[in-house]
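This section describes the prediction task in plain terms. A model, or a person checking by hand, is given the sequence of a single protein chain and must write out its three-dimensional structure as a string of tokens. No templates, partner chains or ligands are provided. The sample shown here is typical of the held-out split.
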Amino acid sequence: MNAQDYIKQQRRRRRKTAALVGAVMLFTLAVVLVVARVLGEPTNVDIPEPGVNTTPPDQYPTLAAHAVTMAGYDFSDEDRPIILLSDPADNSIAGKTHDFDPTPTHLPLVTDGRWWFVDYPGEAIGCIYAAIIVRVADQDDEEAPNQWDLPRLPDLSQNAVEAWGESYCAPTAAANIVWMLGEDYPPLAPASVFGLMQDATPDECANRLVGGIAPPIPALGSLASLMGTEKMSGTVLQDAASGLGVYLRENDTVQWAVNDPELIPRKSFMETLKNESARGSGIVLLLHWGNLKMAGDEDGRSILVVLERNAEQSESQIPEPPEQQQTESAKPVTIEDISGEGEELEPTEIIEGAGGESGGGANDVGLSKEDIMERLKDVKAGSGDIQLSLAWNNYNDLDLSCNEPDGTVIDFEHRRSSSGGNLDVDMNATPQSKRPVENIFWPLGQARRGKYQVYANYYRRHTSSREKIEFTLRVEVGEKEQFYKAKLSPKSGRVLIHTFEYK
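The expected answer:
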């Protein structure tokens, strides 16, 4: 190749290289322009028309609605607000159960001018139709920052226990908040509420809080039980708010108020969520998959329920219960003894027509036979020659005990006697159930003949109420079954409520 041909070849190569570089630059520029245009367009273009539903995200339960916990926000770009979520349904997708040190999910917030929506990946749009706010601090005048994430909020999973099914998002979302509160207010921590061992794992505590681990599911006192959560259909908004309120009121040492629901316009609704999140309030968001249509209301109004802790009532104002004293040698307290000390005690009355529906008459069972028998079945209570069962309706602690004919006492400290008598069910030493029952029984052929004395003691308040507790006593002796009712005041001491002869 001569010099002239070589120069021509180099020129052709340079032209090809320049053309290639130019084409790459044009392509890159086109991509940048397309991306810029996409990012610059309003994000509400994918919001469906009012009344149109969307499918849930992939691998989510096929329900029409979903509950999540708000973990913060990023409103630094007014055109592209971001919401941070602890989502009960996404842990199983990531191969996790509960996450106690989570990284919240960041998702865009979009609006059609009526509602606020969470834009999930794909075609899923979650309309924020309601929120439950758990407020523990007074509102201050400081302006909320444009960015905020809520520290110490876990990301619990609604799929941690197979028996829960796929509809436990509401109790799980609320459990995130309760878990966080329990670190600041120990009486609310699940380990304290459910009387779990000191070596209980975080997973065990979280599972007990959400719905329970072993049958019956949902477990008594769990958030799913208090909220009336159904395995297939989930939780109703009103029940979610009231059930969470019951947990907080019954287990905390100060009062909680559950405010009436309000309808909040779109603009002020998001501002409220922003301010509450920045102040450290827990927030459960209720999402509807799709765009809700409200007749005659062009601007959607979301439902807001606020649960508020009464910080003015100090824990020190709640008196500590006295240590319980029940021994075999202790002289039992009788109704006459209590009356002589000025206590007002309504004597027990025999209930005619036992087993009827509860009502308001003089012979009202208070609790129906069916209810009591269901509770006994749930706890697998024993029966035999004699069965004594005490039932009431709150988290406070009543104690059932009995003196046998020879003077032996069966109580929570002496649960078994030589005759076979057995206190096999003792509930609410910690506030585990709103539907408690206690049970003493003697196996067939073992009960001693003679006179039995049955006692009740309103030993400990787990709630702020100082009202008397009405209880129902079921007595089964042989084939004869009777029901009695009475009321006990707090710190009643051991009160004789029934005497019978076993022949």
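For orientation: Residues 3-40 form the longest helix (38 residues).
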